[in-house]
DNA sequence: TTCAATCGAATTGTACACAATTATTTTAGG
DNA sequence: CCTAAAATAATTGTGTACAATTCGATTGAA
């Protein structure tokens, strides 16, 4: 009969979070060659994604969509501004709000960006059922974390 | 009949990678209060995990386990050394290898660390079947990424 | 009305994460 | 034996992440 290891839970192969953490990093690495063509990092890419959808938002709203805070977004948005893809202006109605607006150049980038999801899809060896499963599991966890406090 | 949006693939809610990225970050954030008690960051914690298992490794081997390179590990290992949990010495047989050894203090930390997985488990609203599913999906993806090139 | 509480963004400080480069050591081919 | 190639860490530079703090603007209760 096998001895029970009281520290088995501390082995990397028994962890559920570690493969999640590692997988996330590897996925972002996979994006790199495709995003390099657009001169975007992964975080800049998903930021553009919310702006392609909404056209105008403040920093707080973007942060809520992406689970990021102003400490991450402020320098990132300045970068996107310097590339000419967005503008940053204070709201007239409430000076606390910094309005982020997409520019025509930012809109144009969308044309080239549509290629990325297709290219990434080829790197994923998941059938539609598995992909849906993964998607639902991730959002279930995100919801749990969000509603807990 | 609904119009087909050629840019639908660029919407955040149609992305499979984004919830993975967001979930990974949120999980690491969940660890923080528990790891703060051990004065460890998440990356330091998983590094200790491989050393609790193997006692002695070089930087390359640790990096292979954790999917990290020396640019990340070198400063992190110096930090763990300064905390007294590991030692860093060049191998006598091959001076290129930096041998990382766990100290008695590092071993002792294991006693307090066993509490962490149990505490984290309570934050996860997944039944065993879902957890297994997630685990297998993550390793399937990691394997794909690894064997592709 | 007024001022304390709140809010949104920016800043600061610490810690990854990784590509690219460098330095040192070892190995192997001629 | 000697030198070119390979291997291993460390370093450098850029870009996140996030907690904590600060700052200015706004709001709401006395």
CATH class membership of one domain in chain A: Mainly Alpha
Number of helices of chain A: 7
What's the SSE pattern of chain A? HHEHHEEHHH
CATH fold label of one domain in chain A: Arc Repressor Mutant, subunit A
Second CATH tier, the architecture of one domain in chain A: Orthogonal Bundle
* Quaternary structure annotation: homodimer
Rg from alpha-carbon coordinates of chain A: 19 Å
Instruction: Name the helicity range of chain A.
Output: 55-70%
What class do helices, strands and sheet pairing of chain A give?
Answer: mainly alpha
Model regions low in confidence, pLDDT < 50 over at least 5 residues of chain A: none
CATH superfamily of one domain in chain A: Winged helix-like DNA-binding domain superfamily/Winged helix DNA-binding domain
Secondary structure tally: strands of chain A: 3
Greatest chain-chain contact:
A-B, 55 and 55 residues
- Give the termini separation of chain A: 44 Å
Mean pLDDT of chain A: 94
């Amino acid at each position: 009969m096998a001895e029970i290891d009281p520290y088995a839970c501390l082995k990397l192969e028994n962890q559920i979070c570690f493969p999640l953490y590692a997988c996330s990093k590897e996925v972002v690495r996979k994006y790199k060659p495709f995003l390099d063509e657009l001169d975007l990092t992964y975080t800049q890419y998903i930021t553009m994604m919310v702006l392609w959808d909404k056209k105008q938002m403040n920093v707080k709203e973007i942060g809520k969509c992406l689970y990021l805070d102003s400490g991450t977004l402020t320098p990132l948005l300045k970068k996107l501004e310097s590339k000419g893809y967005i503008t940053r202006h204070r709201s007239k109605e409430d000076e606390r709000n910094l309005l982020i607006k997409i520019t025509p150049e930012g809109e144009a980038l969308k044309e080239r960006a549509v290629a990325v999801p297709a290219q990434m899809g080829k790197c994923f060896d998941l059938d539609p059922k598995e992909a849906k499963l993964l998607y639902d599991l991730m959002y279930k966890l995100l919801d749990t974390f969000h509603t807990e406090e």
